[in-house]
């Protein structure tokens, strides 16, 4: 009988159920007291058989509260599958099943949020609004689950229903992470923008490791989305834990106190302050890392070009005829280009050496341990890098010209055109970079001496500028 009842539930056959009830009126009662892992109501709820569910509930509503081997009620299964009609039928029988947790510590609302079942979420919240306050075994709210599983629409719906629940929106899980911490860690830009737009997020909350959302971004693996995420956080007033300590401690420099008072006065005014940030707090670290990588690559290429110049090296020694000027001597291991075109070889080695030594000097400065963590020193290293890259470009074209056949007019014409276009493009790019940095330097000088009104800045940016002024 139990097997036939399970088959009827699998098919959703109401006729089979009625037939079984005629044969054994207590068959549903036996389903309650038996040790089977799933009741027929569990099966029908999971498969979406509305009529079958309605018939069982009309005859034995107690089955709605039965749990399977995983601690799931029929409401859990219907919610996770998104069967809205069945969810409504189950809630009519027992609305309190909304707050029942399964073996994983999740309610029907939790599993519906993980799967993004918007209609089911709406119905569960309408029937039992308190279900949004139930936590998982890890202390997570339903909002944590939405962010962890990247269910943006479900998150929008839930936040809309929690307009007056600021404490719940900023709730911390067992690791001390709010939903903002998790969104930043997972680089979810749209989720981050939604959270910041609610004006309910506390952007400088610390997690169990003592990190703010901005600290999590700083210490996470580099990503193309980092700049946009950092700008959004800083526009909302996010700070690193170091800057928070500077503002709250008694030994804060006077400059930071002034900036803090300025931000406070702006917030109390009628107009909403617009904060503009010069750089993120780890600007120097990112620049130094980039310089190290590029310098290492250029040094490797230049070293290889110096050992194996265009044309290679002689594999044997040869004594030329002294009476024949065109019959030149050569020694094994010497450069073929040095014997055939000594002038071009000299120019090639000069620029290759410049690129090699310039890149090595950057590497030496970065690993020397000297206190070169000021922006001015970083700009000097960047100028050296421009020199190294330019020298490497010249080395490339010299090698290209040497390897091209000189008696083929078509090849020479094509090489000339490619060289002219490439050199012109490179000069335009270098000029653009130079002009851009020159303009930035002039603006900085004009602001420093009061000719241009100072921008609104964050405490972290102000500290960086003060370090620059100390030089």
Brief digest:
Its main location: membrane. The protein has 471 residues and is mostly helical.
Unreliable residue stretches: 250-260, 266-281, 456-471
Could you tell me the number of beta strands? 0
Shape: elongated
- As a percent range, the share of helical residues equals 55-70%
Look at the structure and name the CATH superfamily of the largest domain.
Answer: Ankyrin repeat-containing domain
**What are the secondary-structure elements, in order, as H or E?**
HHHHHHHHHHHHHHHHHHHHHHHH
- For this structure, what is the CATH class of the largest domain? Mainly Alpha
Q: What structural category do the secondary elements indicate?
A: mainly alpha
Task: Give the mean pLDDT.
Answer: 80
- Strand content is under 5%
For the record, the CATH architecture of the largest domain stands as Alpha Horseshoe
Number of domains: 3
End-to-end span in angstroms? 89 Å
Cα-atom radius of gyration: 36 Å
Largest sheet: none
Number of helices: 24
The CATH topology of the largest domain corresponds to: Serine Threonine Protein Phosphatase 5, Tetratricopeptide repeat
Membrane topology: Multi-pass membrane protein
Keywords: ANK repeat, Membrane, Repeat, Transmembrane, Transmembrane helix
Subcellular location: Membrane
Pfam families: Ank, Ank_2, PGG
């Amino acid at each position: 009988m139990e097997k036939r009842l399970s088959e009827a539930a699998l098919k959703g056959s109401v006729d089979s159920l009625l037939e079984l009830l005629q044969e054994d009126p207590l068959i549903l009662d036996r389903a309650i007291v038996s040790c089977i892992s799933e009741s027929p109501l569990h099966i029908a709820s999971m498969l979406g058989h509305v009529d079958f569910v309605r018939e069982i509930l009309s005859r034995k509503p107690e089955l709605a509260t039965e749990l399977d081997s995983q601690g799931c009620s029929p409401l859990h299964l219907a919610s996770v599958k998104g069967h809205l009609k069945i969810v409504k039928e189950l809630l009519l029988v027992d609305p309190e099943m909304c707050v029942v947790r399964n073996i994983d510590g999740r309610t029907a609302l939790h599993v519906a949020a993980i799967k993004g079942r918007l209609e089911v979420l709406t119905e569960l919240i309408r029937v039992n609004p308190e279900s949004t306050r139930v936590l998982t075994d890890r202390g997570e709210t339903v909002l944590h689950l939405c962010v962890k599983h990247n269910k943006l629409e479900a998150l929008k719906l839930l936040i809309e229903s929690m307009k007056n629940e600021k404490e719940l929106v900023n709730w911390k899980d067992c690791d001390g992470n709010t939903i903002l911490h998790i969104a930043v860690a997972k680089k979810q830009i749209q989720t981050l923008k939604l959270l910041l737009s609610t004006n309910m997020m506390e952007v400088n909350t610390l997690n169990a490791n003592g990190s703010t959302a901005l600290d999590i971004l700083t210490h996470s693996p580099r990503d193309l989305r980092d700049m946009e995420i950092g700008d959004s956080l800083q526009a909302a007033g996010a700070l690193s834990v170091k800057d928070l300590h500077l503002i709250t401690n008694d030994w804060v420099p006077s400059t930071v106190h002034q900036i803090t008072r300025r931000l406070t006065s702006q917030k109390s005014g009628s107009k909403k302050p617009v904060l503009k940030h010069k750089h993120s707090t780890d600007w120097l670290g990112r620049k130094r890392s980039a310089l190290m990588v590029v310098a290492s690559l250029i040094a490797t290429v230049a070293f290889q070009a110096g050992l194996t110049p265009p044309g290679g090296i002689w594999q044997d020694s040869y004594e030329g005829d002294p009476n024949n000027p065109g019959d030149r001597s050569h020694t094994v291991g010497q450069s073929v280009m040095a014997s055939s075109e000594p002038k071009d070889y000299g120019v090639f080695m000069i620029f290759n050496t410049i690129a090699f030594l310039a890149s090595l000097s950057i590497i030496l400065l970065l690993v020397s341990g000297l206190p070169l963590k000021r922006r001015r020193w970083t700009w000097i290293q960047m100028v050296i890098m421009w020199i190294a890259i330019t020298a490497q470009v010249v080395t490339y074209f010299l090698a290209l010209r040497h390897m091209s056949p000189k008696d083929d007019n078509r090849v020479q014409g094509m090489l000339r055109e490619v060289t002219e276009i490439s050199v012109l493009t490179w000069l335009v790019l270098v000029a653009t970079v130079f002009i851009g940095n020159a303009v930035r330097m002039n603006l900085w000088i004009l602001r420093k001496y009061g000719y241009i009104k100072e921008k609104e800045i964050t405490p972290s940016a102000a500290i960086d500028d003060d370090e620059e002024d100390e030089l």
